[in-house]
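Could you help me review a protein record that somebody else here produced? This is what I was given.
***
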Amino acid sequence: MPFKVKDESLAKQGALNIEWAESQMGSLLEIRKRFEKEKPLKGLTIGMALHVTKETAALVRTLETGGAKVYITGCNPLMLLLHLQKQAQMFLLTRGKASRNIMSS
């Protein structure tokens, strides 16, 4: 189902926020390096319903590096989303990695 990203400028800032988060996630980056070589998740499809944050986006990127096809939707029962979370969501949307349901979070 096609979708339209409401504010692509959020995706650009989201990418910067995700890069910063990744710089603080040394263990995840080590796993990503291994995944890049081994592709242990090749052929797997992973679905997630999580709070979509810059850290979650870093996890999605790592799983994709491992060969998985990843689908993610926002899941926040309290509906208390921060602006930074929206930026991470828009980044994932512009890459076609998130459900359009994320826009209703």
Remarks:
- Residues 8-104 form a domain with the Rossmann fold fold (CATH 3.40.50.1480).
- The chain has a mean pLDDT of 80.
- The beta strands are 45-50, 69-74.
